[in-house]
Amino acid sequence: EEEAQNQYCSCVGTICRCCVDFDISYVDLGGPGCVAIIYKPDDKKLFVNVTYGDSQLHIDQIKDTVPTTTCISLLGELAQLCAEFTDIEQAEQGPKGCVSLTPKLLGSIQETYKLGCFTVATQGMTFSHSHDHTHHHHHHSHHHHAPTPRYQSAIK
């Protein structure tokens, strides 16, 4: 239940914002990491804004239905925070799709947080959590709390 405890989403109008409190034990970057999904009904454009802590770091337009990843760099190039969009569809009343937040360290994915899926309807944007628990690591749930030497030596 790793993902469920430390992530939260809220929607206002045609903007949804989801955050994850990263308890990434091998490096404390002072999160949380957030992704805002912004729909502009006037020109029918979908934007994504990825932030980390207090930094407004990145805004991108999601143009098509292909899976899209948008990343921000942290610690120079050592770490990245990526928002990944999948299942994007352009419905008549607006786009819908699903989003995950993925921290990367030295280019390798540490953990994928499936935030859920958004839908734009006439009354605004709604967000539903993914109830897919198959990606939880029940049998070795503690493994990513113990830093391996590899991570520590990379950060020093």
TrEMBL record:
It comes from the Eukaryota. Residues 129-156 are annotated as: Disordered. Residues 8-124 form the DUF4773 domain. It holds the Pfam family DUF4773. Residues 132-147 have a biased composition (Basic residues). InterPro entries: DUF4773. Transmembrane segments: none annotated. PANTHER family: AGAP008005-PA, DUF4773 DOMAIN-CONTAINING PROTEIN. This is DUF4773 domain-containing protein.
